[in-house]
Fold this protein.
Amino acid sequence: MNRRFSPGNIALVTAAVLAMAFLIAPLVVVVAISFTANSILRFPPEGFSFRWYEAILDHPEFIEALFNSLEIAVIVAVVSTLLGTTTAIGIFRYRFHGRTVLLNLILSPLMLPQLILAISLLIWLSQLGLTGSILAMLIAHVIVTLPFVVRLVLVSLERVDPNIERAAQISGANPLTVFLKVTIRLIFPGMFAGAAFAFIMSFDNIVVSLFFTTPRLMTLPVEIYAYLENADDPLITSVSAVVIFMIVAMLIVIEKTVGFSNSFASVEKG
């Protein structure tokens, strides 16, 4: 009997397919309802219409919130990647007192409930007089996303062959050139994966964002949550569908230009 069709492999593939279907089903339902002609949230949808996509234009608050979320997510991704990369290199390459404590402190947001973390950040930033500003939102998001970058860059650093960097130094390259042209290229998969995680985590964050939004600074997840409190029409599904289409398009472009799956595969092999 072919081992590829053994009962164990068939069961594993079946479980994987069912898991994927379970994860994708909610997205399919949201997109399907967004094209309904009905005025209430109901599945399966009744009729076919673009009315709820046209209705988005009558709610500029969603468009403004979308651009706010994109702006914050891009800034957070850049800042977290720069800070996370330099921090990971410092922790990995140098031995100093408190190194383990520092790493555990940076990774601690991964272990804390986001609600507790959000309340703590609110108290801390309010004492600094930063609440109600975009700076407070950025600091909170960076603290939440930084551990992902640090962890993924550390994984990439662990698989870097130090002989490659030594060879560059022997060839006459100065330390800065080695870092920019050798080290960065070797750990780029981890940096890219970390930046992707930081962007997605910031763009999709609602728990922390709820504590730092203001009437002038609303992110899209918070705007959707606020709208759901007062309405139950399919408009919210069309907004969600637009976000889904944007993210899928972004992933396709990244895959074609940089190689999204290859970057994650390189990190996993590390």
